[in-house]
Design a protein that fits this description.
alpha+beta; 381 residues; Cytochrome p450; 3-stranded antiparallel β-sheet
Amino acid sequence: MSEREEIRGYHNVRAAARDYETYSSDLLGDRDVRDYKAIPLEIDPPRHTLFREAVQPIFHSSHLEGKAPQFEALARQLIDDITARGGGDLVPDLGLRYVMGCLSIIYNRPQDLDEWLSWGPDVWTAEAYSKGMSVVESRRAARNRQFGEASLRSGDMLYRYLERVFAEATPAVGADPATTDVWDWIAGIRVNGEAPTREETFGIAMLLLAGGRDTVIKLIVGIAWHLIRVPDDREYLREHPEAYNKAIAELARYLSPIKQMERLSSDPTRRALEQDDPRRYVLINWLSANHDRSIWPDADTIDIHRDRKPHVAFGIGRHSCMGMNITEFEAKAMISALVTQWPGWQLDGEPAIDWEQNGEGPDATIAVESFLSMPIRVVRG
């Protein structure tokens, strides 16, 4: 039997992502750091549909619209703080602080912001980061996902946090998530009239804290990186706020914050393998779809003016990203804050970027794996 199958290309990826019977999501991801599933991401219909409907209210536009002014106020404050210091590193000083700050607003948990920041850009390297590991080291440690290799990844800090907050939670059955503490709200979720199990509750909460953390940081830092490098695009967006959504879509396509995702093959021979055997799984390569040159001939460049075509940066089908709305609201607020009062930022030397070759042969692309460090300085006048 061959090694792990990989599905590549725009049309193949879109078809496979919709075919949950052949390519199941009923699996355990991050098997090196957790033994509970991300809910509803790692289950299939009909259970997936029931849990998604129960969790979806916190992601609705109606919930987020009232938070948007706070997102922009936070973006402006962080920009002002960096500018007042004469510069900084946009990965921890802007990306991490903005994404965690927005989550504290959405989830009504301002008291947790400092703790979430102490975990760094990836919850699975939180313990090492809290003991002094740099963002650069943390990012590189997070990339180490191959079984059998030395790793600094651990899920212990997140698990202890979840144990504590749910021990303190008061179930708020039927409450409005816009005004309710997130953990009280999740403790009050009912699926088919029943409370989720402890494992399911932890899986929902883990997804809310870990699912879009490093990926949205990548997008936010990527937005600032592009606007620093391309002043013409910055000026265009300042004059055309109606183009924000199109620009966000293009940057999400180019950056593809989630590069790939596992699915469990329906092949009975593969399913019979041990859980940690990589041959048991299929990789759906989102980045290859978003950089498919038959769809975007110049796919490896950022063009915020190109005709908009459906990308798969947020997945597609039943398991498309529930946090897409959150990401778009946050990105729009950040662009607005940056372009309407440009802080005079310039790169202070070359940023540290992990570039990775994705694929082989004519369809290979060199893509941003992650932004490790992006020092900037303020140029006034």
